[in-house]
């Protein structure tokens, strides 16, 4: 029986980051679909350590080059290297002599802004990260946003805030609140990551800014963990990170068999958007409807009823129902149910909880009732929805 010698491959990624995890998953998918035999080196606790990596006696490396320290360390490495990272508008910014698989930053931002345009918004802003070498990908997304706004002769509003740490937490949140209050409304905000979008959603809640009536927010990464931490389900652009991983693995496989691919550049477009409540802006004129939807969005999963919403707004139940019919063409109960459904979808997509736990956590009176709602509204059972979400490579909402 013939056996193929396994190649020793290092994966230099910080797998605590959603993007890096998805790239690694794509590498795994490539290996599972081919006869390539690789022994993989990946830090056990998923943190990225570079000390001595240039002396590593292996056959190849796939690495996240968004970190300039990684690019610097591997410049002295003799093993074949494939780089993964964000795209650059300036070709000179790409590392020389290394094949590079890039997420298309321009298309990421364009897809996010097009979605905000589609929901009826006319003003746009971006929540970015402080300028730093390790945040070059964020600055590239800023440049893409500026370019799109200039093309439409619109003013571009960008806020970077400060890095999140314990010592500056209060200052960071207050800065976000002050910025949010200064913006003209309604407005759509693109956050450079889901983590940044989550912070902004939290600041909106503290400041009493209605999402998405006054501020519609969309992130980038489609990170299931972030969705679990947001009271309002977060819309997010789905990067083609798994496809990037597959592509990078294929390039390295070719290099291991003697193919020369230096300076190859491959840009992978985003694969779609998962649309949830944070960006589902609907122009609402009546202040009672706006206030009611803000309350529902925060507490739908706690099993609130129509009369509780009316009490919060300070009007009679019949009056609130009339306002909802006039503004939205549906009942207060319909809106509560819609938010429960969105929350259940987000929870099922994470795959972390049982269907019974999701039903309970999202305010459904029973698993059977959630089953009926899914069948009626989505044409499938909760189990089928979860299986499709966890196994599908295509976005649920594109």
UniProtKB/TrEMBL annotation:
Limits of the HTH araC/xylS-type domain: 290-388
Can you name one GO molecular function term for this protein?
A: transcription cis-regulatory region binding
InterPro entries linked to this entry: Homeodomain-like_sf (IPR009057), HTH_AraC (IPR018060), LacI/GalR-like_sensor (IPR046335), Peripla_BP_I (IPR028082), XylR_PBP1 (IPR054031)
- Keyword entries, A-Z: DNA-binding, Transcription, Transcription regulation
Taxonomic source organism: Pseudoduganella rivuli
In which domain of life is the source organism classified? Bacteria
Q: Where are the transmembrane segments?
A: none
Q: Which PROSITE patterns match?
A: HTH_ARAC_FAMILY_2
Task: Write the protein's name.
Answer: Helix-turn-helix domain-containing protein
